[in-house]
Amino acid sequence: MAFAVLLLAVSSCKKENNNKASETEDLTQIQEVSNANFSVEIWGVKSGFETGYNDIYFRVKDKTSGVYLQDASLSWYPEMHMMSMSHSCPNSTIAKMNGKQTLYKAYAIFTMATNATEYWDAKIDITKNGEVSTVIPVLNVVASSTKKVASFTGSDSKKYILAYIEPQKPKAAVNDLVLGLFLKNGMGFDAVQNLNIEVDPRMPSMNNHSSPGNENPVFNPSDNFYHGKLSLTMSGLWKLNLIVKNANNDIIGGKAVTQTEDSNLYLEVEF
After folding, report:
1. For the chain, N or C: smaller number of CB within 10 Å?
2. CA distance 46 to 142
């Protein structure tokens, strides 16, 4: 009997360990934060957060039972605390991942890096049996090596954020291009779906040449992003010159590339 109990305990331990490994395969745990009731693990594709688009993953463990929650209700509010003000950033809701038992996912587009006096945190609410429990991790955000996010005030006097999302692993080929365009709305941001984005990729180190086979991204309501094609003919740093227009073809932000000037609205990709 004692041997059977021990065997069951070892088997349960192995299942938990295997479950954890399979749930977070190819991810890196960035940090963990706890309160009296729960421990929240925060995971990412990389070892930390950077300015621009970030996929963020969560696991929640009940500290009393030691079990990861499979039916958690999670909500969050990422916020940058500056010297004179605070603001949020474009982000998604936290949702359970398909095919996973304990892993939840969201995205955030961090618009600036953490510094000595200004920092990001995220108020995460965990609802279980009608009771809300909160943790507030501080998130360290470093500056991306390339420009992944651009903020601008349009000719319509509205404030926009334009973000590079895909390809995360660019190659010398025609890549699937995904951009996010957001409009500041009070303390939050709304996805913009009624504007047009023109992309002119150039390689500054190679006489600013462009590439064939590009397709301007078009809004896709399935994920609220803009999808197009990005042709990269060789490795190196590429500058994605951008123009944002309304339905009447009026320029909201950016300008066309000339022999002497790039667009004042751009993002970068390097590989």
Report:
1. N
2. 12
